[in-house]
Write a structure and sequence with these properties.
The protein is of the alpha+beta class. Helices cover 20% and strands 32% of the residues.
Length: 191
């Protein structure tokens, strides 16, 4: 084999290997510098100048379209408050109190960040869609079957996650997201 063939083969193998490693790293999930509060997780550097190139690529791939942290923070739950994976065949009650930000919404996704197909054409619950009591407490249902009141349909998918967007969060939440008082996700039973 001629020398230039060896060089060409090494370059080709290096490019293929490097591209495969890069794809593996970017698709590896948002696990860098995570902060947890109950079942909710967020990246400490999402939407900040501290985010490295890998974190920015992962955020772009996941579809968060992340705003700067002072504008919005994104918390994702893949498990209920007891640590069980969220299952689209089960019923859940999500409940909480006043969130320390200007406005919030919770959106239901399946798998790779896709919205769940459902007959109700409902994918998100905004703060304005839930009734609050005198103490500022609120709740809504996540279920495969239609429910009265505020409800997010799961479409009976095998697994889903919930993303809480907190717009204009308080400085304390930006600095210490693990101390945020976020909603509880209670599983009420499965079909």
């Amino acid at each position: 084999m001629k020398t230039w063939h060896r060089f060409a083969a090494c370059i080709a193998l290096g490019l293929v290997g490097g591209a495969a490693f890069a794809v593996h790293q970017v698709r590896g999930g948002l696990s860098d510098g995570l902060a947890s509060s109950g079942p909710w997780e967020t990246g400490k550097s999402f939407g900040t100048v501290d985010a490295n190139a890998l974190t920015r690529a992962k955020v772009a791939l996941s579809g968060l379209l992340a705003l700067p942290a002072k504008e919005a923070m994104y918390f994702t739950a893949k498990n209920d408050s007891d640590g069980r994976a969220l299952d689209g065949r089960c019923n859940y009650v999500v409940h909480g109190g006043t969130l320390d930000g200007r406005w919030w919404s919770i959106t239901l996704y399946e798998g790779e960040g896709w919205l769940v197909k459902n007959a109700a054409n409902r994918w998100s619950i905004p703060a304005s869609a839930v009734a609050t009591d005198a103490q500022g407490r609120w709740s809504f249902t996540v279920s495969p079957n239609a429910q009265s009141g505020s409800w997010l349909p799961t479409g009976s998918v095998d697994a889903f996650d919930l993303t809480l967007r907190l717009y204009h969060p308080a400085a304390d939440i930006i600095k210490n997201p693990e101390k945020a008082q976020l909603p509880i996700i209670d599983r009420k039973g499965c079909a």
